[in-house]
Amino acid sequence: MPASSRLLEGHELTSPYKSLHDSYVSDRRDSRCPVSALLAAACLLLLGILLAVTVIEVLKNEDRIHEALNPPQTQTCCNQTDPMEQSSIVLVESFPLGLDYGRNVSAGVDLYDAWKDLLSRASEQIDVASFYWCLTAEDISVNSSSDRQGRDILEEFKALPSRNVSVRVVTSIPTLAPNSTDLKVLKERGVQIRRVNFGRLTKGILHSKFWIVDGKHVYIGSANMDWRALTQVKELGVVIYNCSALADDLQKIFQSYWVTARSNASIPDPWPSDYDTGINQEHPLLLNLSGVQSQAYITASPPVFCPDSRTRDLDAILSAIRGAQDFIHVAVMEFYPASKFFHHHGYWPVIEDALKRSAVDRNVSVCLLVSCGQETDPAVWPFIRSLDALHSPSDNINIAVRVFVIPAGNQSHIPYSRINHNKYLVTEKVAYVGTSNWSADYFSTTAGVALVLSQNASGDSFHQQLRAVFDRDWSSPFSHPLADVQRIHDCAFSTSAP
Description:
Layout: H1 3-14, H2 22-25, H3 35-69, E1 88-94, E2 109-110, H4 111-121, E3 125-129, E4 133-134, H5 148-159, E5 166-173, H6 182-188, E6 192-197, H7 198-201, E7 210-213, E8 217-221, E9 225-226, H8 228-231, E10 235-241, H9 244-260, E11 285-289, E12 292-301, H10 313-323, E13 327-332, E14 335-336, H11 350-361, E15 365-372, H12 381-388, E16 399-405, E17 423-427, E18 431-434, E19 438-439, H13 440-444, E20 448-455, H14 462-474, E21 479-481
Parallel strand pairs: 1-2, 3-5, 4-9, 5-6, 13-15, 14-19, 15-16
Antiparallel strand pairs: 1-10, 3-7, 7-8, 8-10, 11-12, 12-20, 13-17, 16-21, 17-18, 18-20
Helix pairs in contact: 4-5, 10-11
């Protein structure tokens, strides 16, 4: 109801002039009104009108103040970025030393160069989530000059506080790098560091790997803050520049880690409204990325770290698989349809069944590229072999599984290296770049994030680039059918293959 209407309604109920109307006058024997009474009535009426006008203006002014302090919220149905932002997207990769594809092979921007660029752009704040930090070789008792790039990145981070750039880091308990000195050195330089005890909170780990720079640039990918990610492990990720909407959304996930890293913290249920998102599978962000109209949203796991409005990581994967009509290409370090950690070795065929149904029910072509190195868990072998056994072109069932093996060469003394660490999916409709391996624990107890992107598939879009990367790796000399695994000594499956 308008303020003026409220005022008039109130005036009718509480008018101070009721006693001057007909009922009052009728009690008088003389119907003539003395002049003084008329003048008094006129003055009171005029005073009432002036008072009413004043109250109306006050109410209008209060409305204007309220609007100034509480501006209307952006419609979540549209979820459009600021048109003034020139958002762009870059596919980033790293390759182990000695991995040579030959000439005229496309590749993403070098991961080291991308990280250096983000560090050089930082002027206010960098927030980093990573499983662990290990940017120097001596932290793992290895002598290798291939850690030079990692050392350089560490020096860049150490220098940020002196440039008045605030740095916050969250990492995991448990960790793969208990003896790392990186975090100690960074803390001495003024970097704020917190460790989230996911072992206590969820019986999992913090496996997310992302950066947020100045509230507008974002990196998400497979690479930990590890020197081996730059020179000894094959990684893949994405950098998005000048997109404050996605950066703000990812910031909410970072903040959920930050607050639960406090001593004796517990997981909120439900999460406060500050952690809600208007960007999800139902309402993706509409934006122009490097000249291509796109729709994007960020997913997370585990479910207990997601408010109701956040799309779960597993749900996004299943949606992409079930929505594919032509092809599903998956590159993941480990595909294991079971639980692996904390002694819960239960069968978990959720993703496996979705892939099979796509191939059998809709005749979608499914290609799964898994990694294998000297430290790969041989327990994966029976599952990928059973999936590959369904391949039957004569029945129009096309499921193919290949193993990507990086020769160890003279680098075999470096642990947890020479592996394809990628974690992505691409269909004719969707590009998905994540931080999780594909086993039950990564979606039920372990923290991870992913970028889900839909674009016009024509032209030089990120979607097309990701598809080209998969095709490059699938047809490369490092990709092997399962029948050939037995003779590949750099793959742990060689001892499991019949």
